[in-house]
Design brief:
The chain is mainly beta. It contains no helices and eleven strands. It has strands spanning about 1-5, 5-15, 20-25, 30-35, 40-50, 50-60, 65, 85-95, 95-105, 110, 120-125.
């Protein structure tokens, strides 16, 4: 879920290559975001200084970071995974916002949520694909 202009929204992803932002009341799809070229495997959200973002990942090996108020263009599309990206998570700590992804290439990657550059950190050690990832602040 994400709050946009004071209203709670539900965000979903699917094998139809879309990310959808829904109104809880009425059940209408308010936005259909299309950038992924294959199925979308995961979605998460974060808010920094009242700026909401949606993060999606997919079978096409990409991660897309969206502004749900702005429409259907991805703001940031960092590249780095060599195969499908299975999951994404976010962490907001002080003034630092990171996106963490995991993929079929057996890596976990940590990205700056706003710059779209290369991964800041690549974590290797899994001997097979990585199906999920989460974060926490200690």
């Amino acid at each position: 879920t994400v709050v946009v202009n004071g209203e709670v929204r539900v965000v979903s992803c699917g094998d139809d290559r879309t990310v959808r932002v829904w109104a809880i009341e009425g059940g209408d799809a308010l936005q259909v975001l299309r950038v992924h070229t294959y199925g979308v495997k995961g979605v998460t959200t974060f808010v920094v200084h009242d700026d909401a973002r949606v993060v999606s990942c997919g079978d096409d090996g990409t991660i897309c970071i969206w502004d749900p108020r702005a429409g259907s263009d991805a703001l940031v599309v960092p590249e780095g995974h060599s195969e499908a990206v299975n999951g994404v998570a976010t962490v907001v700590a002080k003034e630092d916002t990171r996106v963490v992804s995991c993929g079929m290439d057996g890596t976990v990657r940590v990205w700056d949520a706003f710059d779209g550059g290369d991964a800041r950190v690549v974590l290797r050690g899994h001997t097979d694909y990585v199906p999920g990832v989460t974060t926490f602040v200690v």
